[in-house]
C-alpha cells in the first residue's frame, strides 16, 4: 500500500479505498487491517485520498476517525431512480456519488442538475451487467455476505450471456456505455468531468485494454501495448 501511495503521489493522483460492503455492523469497524489502511491513506500529507463506501455505519465511523479522507457513495447502492440520486448528491458527507449505470444516458434530467451537483457525479463508464437486470442489489448483497464469511443464498445471475463473464466488447454494446467520444462531445460540454472505469479484479490484460481505450490516443495505443508486452510486465494468465 505504501508503494501504491508513493506512485500516486509522484503523479499527483488521488487514491481511494473500496469499502463498499453493504452489510457491515458496528462490530466490523474494529477490523485492524482496514483501519491500518485508512490511517495510511489519511496520513498522506501531499494528496487527499478517499474511501468508496456503501454502509452509513461505516461512513459515520470514518468521518469521525479519519476526517482527512473524502468519501464516495458507491454504485453498489444501485441508485436507479433519479430523485434518489439527487438526494444522495445533497448529502454533504460525499464528495462524489456514483449513480447506477442505467442513469448514464438520462440526459434530460442530468442536464437539469446544478453545477455543484454535476461536479459530484461520477459516471460508471464500462459496466457489462445486463441493462435490464433487476437483481443487481441482491447480487451485491450476496457478495457482501460472502466477504463477511456469513451464510446465505448463492446468487445466480439470470442475465443473458452471464456465463461469458466480463467482456469489454459486450460492455461497449451496453446502452449505458460511455465511450471516449461520448465524454468529449456530450458529458464535458454538459459540465460533467468525473468518470469511473470498472474492472480492477478482471486481470491485467483487460485493464490494459481499458487504459489504452480511455487514456491513450489511438495513434499511440499499439506502441504502448508493444512496450508492455516486450517488457514482460503483463500477466496474461
What's a quick, concise take on this entry?
The chain is of the alpha/beta class and 237 residues long. The protein has helices spanning 2-10, 32-42, 56-65, 82-89, 107-110, 115-118, 136-148, 168-172, 180-190, 204-215, 218-230; strands at 16-19, 50-53, 70-73, 96-97, 123-124, 195-196. Strand 2 (50-53), helix 3 and strand 3 form a beta-alpha-beta unit.
* Topology pattern, helix = H, strand = E: HEHEHEHEHHEHHHEHH
**What kind of sheet is the major sheet?**
4 strands, parallel
Distance between the termini: 24 Å
Number of helices: 11
Our estimate of the beta-strand percent is 5-15%
Structural class: alpha/beta
Q: What form results from the Cα inertia axes?
A: globular
Radius of gyration equals: 19 Å
Which residues form runs of ≥5 with pLDDT under 50?
none
Mean pLDDT: 91
- Number of extended strands: 6
Strand arrangement, largest sheet? 1-2-3-4
The percent range for helix content is 40-55%
Amino acid at each position: 500500500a505504501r508503494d501504491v501511495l508513493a506512485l500516486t503521489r509522484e503523479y499527483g493522483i488521488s487514491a481511494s479505498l473500496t469499502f463498499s460492503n453493504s452489510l457491515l455492523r458496528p462490530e466490523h469497524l474494529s477490523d485492524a487491517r482496514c483501519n491500518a489502511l485508512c490511517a495510511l491513506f489519511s496520513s498522506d500529507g501531499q494528496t487527499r485520498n478517499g474511501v468508496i463506501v456503501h454502509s452509513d455505519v461505516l461512513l459515520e465511523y470514518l468521518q469521525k476517525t479519519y476526517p482527512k479522507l473524502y468519501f464516495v457513495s458507491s454504485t453498489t447502492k444501485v441508485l436507479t431512480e433519479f430523485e434518489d440520486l439527487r438526494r444522495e448528491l445533497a448529502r454533504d458527507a460525499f464528495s462524489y456519488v456514483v449513480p447506477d449505470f442505467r442513469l448514464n444516458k438520462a440526459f434530460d434530467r442530468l442536464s437539469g442538475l446544478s453545477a455543484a451537483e454535476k461536479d459530484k457525479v461520477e459516471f460508471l463508464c464500462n459496466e457489462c451487467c445486463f441493462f435490464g437486470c433487476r437483481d443487481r442489489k441482491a447480487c451485491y448483497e450476496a457478495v457482501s455476505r460472502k466477504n463477511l464469511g456469513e451464510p446465505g443464498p448463492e446468487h445466480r445471475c439470470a442475465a443473458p450471456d452471464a456465463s461469458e463473464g466480463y467482456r469489454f466488447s459486450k460492455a461497449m454494446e451496453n446502452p449505458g456505455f460511455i465511450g471516449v467520444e461520448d465524454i468529449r462531445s456530450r458529458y464535458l460540454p454538459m459540465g460533467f468531468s468525473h468518470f469511473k472505469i470498472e474492472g480492477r479484479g478482471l486481470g491485467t490484460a483487460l485493464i490494459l485494454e481499458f487504459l489504452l481505450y480511455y487514456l491513450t490516443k489511438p495513434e499511440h495505443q499499439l506502441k504502448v501495448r508493444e512496450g508492455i508486452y516486450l517488457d514482460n510486465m503483463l500477466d496474461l494468465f
